[in-house]
Amino acid sequence: MDIDYAMVEQYLHEHIPLSKTMAVSVTSINGNGVILSAPLLPNINHHSTVFGGSISAVAILSAWTFVHVQLQILSIPCRIVIQSNSIEYIKPIEEEFQAHCMTPPRQNWERFITAVSKRGKGRVILEVEVYSGGLLVGKFQGEYVALKLKETG
Amino acid sequence: MDIDYAMVEQYLHEHIPLSKTMAVSVTSINGNGVILSAPLLPNINHHSTVFGGSISAVAILSAWTFVHVQLQILSIPCRIVIQSNSIEYIKPIEEEFQAHCMTPPRQNWERFITAVSKRGKGRVILEVEVYSGGLLVGKFQGEYVALKLKETG
User: Fold this and answer.
1) Whole-angstrom distance, CA of residue A109 vs CA of residue A123
2) pTM of the prediction?
3) B79 vs A: CB within 8 A
4) How far apart are CA B32 and CA B98, in angstroms?
5) Which residue from A119, A131, B64, B69 has the least number of CB within 10 angstroms?
6) CA distances (Å), B98 to each of A94, B7, B40, B122, B145, in order?
7) For chain A, what is the mean pLDDT?
8) What is the pLDDT of residue B2?
């Protein structure tokens, strides 16, 4: 994969303005998944730690970005929608944090891509681990649906 | 209860700056629970609907506000922390939306207040319904912990 991180970041900031306010940046996109980062300050709460809503939002974005980038690589234009998620806040976050959406097991991913390609709709569960200062501080699981868009032109 | 909505709103905007960016406002606080509202524009995504991260964040805030206000009324100073949550996004949201944190069953609430008062720590599960244009568009459940603060002064 040869992904332009700046372009992905710009896409997020332009289309989801809250990601710009949260100062979300792309740390890596590779075979292991997608890592997005965000600093403390724009995401701070009344305890001077990161607001749970920001942790959730960055985790949601990391998994969305994973699906978005993978479908772009495969040239399958899709509308990607989150259906549900759960998240566990393990420790308070006192500094910059990273949301790492992990590449799902190959079988699950192939089933999803086949469903999208052949039936125009696929569903996949993605796991995200949230880290700060090298510690696991959160665990997220989200269910995403991709709906194939008709070619236009 | 005689709650100053503007004061609660100001507290949120000052201490959790993302709530100001999301333009969260207090719609009601009464015996039925807490309703927070937010408009589409600052919370928009690439589909011109509300970003899932914003829906989550406003739901998280509504339940946090419920616990915060109730403990203030009872003059029990606490640190209130979210432990986990799950959320289902039922329909895309195309306009202003409301997160309604419902007053929990009396028995659960009393158990929580007793635990906080007597043991300095209590845990409660809160349910939030998200509405837009009169339709139920999301369902949230969050687990919150309150830790009683020592009196200072």
Assistant:
1) 9
2) 0.96
3) yes
4) 14
5) A119
6) 30, 19, 11, 27, 24
7) 95
8) 74
- What average pLDDT score do residues A92-106 get? 98
Q: A79 contacts in B (CB within 8 Å)?
A: 47
CA gap A90, A63 in Å, rounded: 19
Asked if A92 reaches chain B (Cβ–Cβ under 8 Å), the answer is yes
Nearest to residue A102, comparing CAs of A27, A5, A26, A34? A34
State pLDDT tens for residues A9-18.
Answer: 999 999 999 9
Query: Across the interface, which of B15, B46, B56 has its CB nearest the CB of A53?
Result: B56
> How many angstroms separate the Cα of A124 from the Cα of each of A64, A111, A153, B53, B78?
11, 9, 29, 18, 39
Question: What DSSP letter does each residue of chain A carry, written as one string?
Answer: ----HHHHHHHHHHH-HHHHHTT-EEEEEETTEEEEEE-SGGGB-TTSSB-HHHHHHHHHHHHHHHHHHHHHHTT--EEEEEEEEEEEE-S---S-EEEEEEPPPHHHHHHHHHHHHHHSEEEEEEEEEEEETTEEEEEEEEEEEEEEPPP--
- Closest residue in B to A78 (Cα) is B47
- Of A63, A56, A61, nearest to A12 by C-alpha is A61
CA distance A128 to chain B (A): 14
Residue type present at position A67: V
Domain annotation for chain A: domains and CATH numbers: 5-148 (3.10.129.10)
ipTM for the whole complex: 0.95
pLDDT in tens, A19-66: 999 999 999 999 999 999 999 999 999 899 999 999 999 999 999 999
* Residue that has been written with the tokens 């944190």 in this structure: B101
The one-character DSSP state at B95 is: S
What's the burial of B48, exposed, middle or buried (CB within 10 Å: 0-12/13-18/19+)? exposed
Closest partner residue to B44 among A11, A17, A89, by Cβ?
Answer: A17
Q: And the tokens for B90?
A: 């039922």
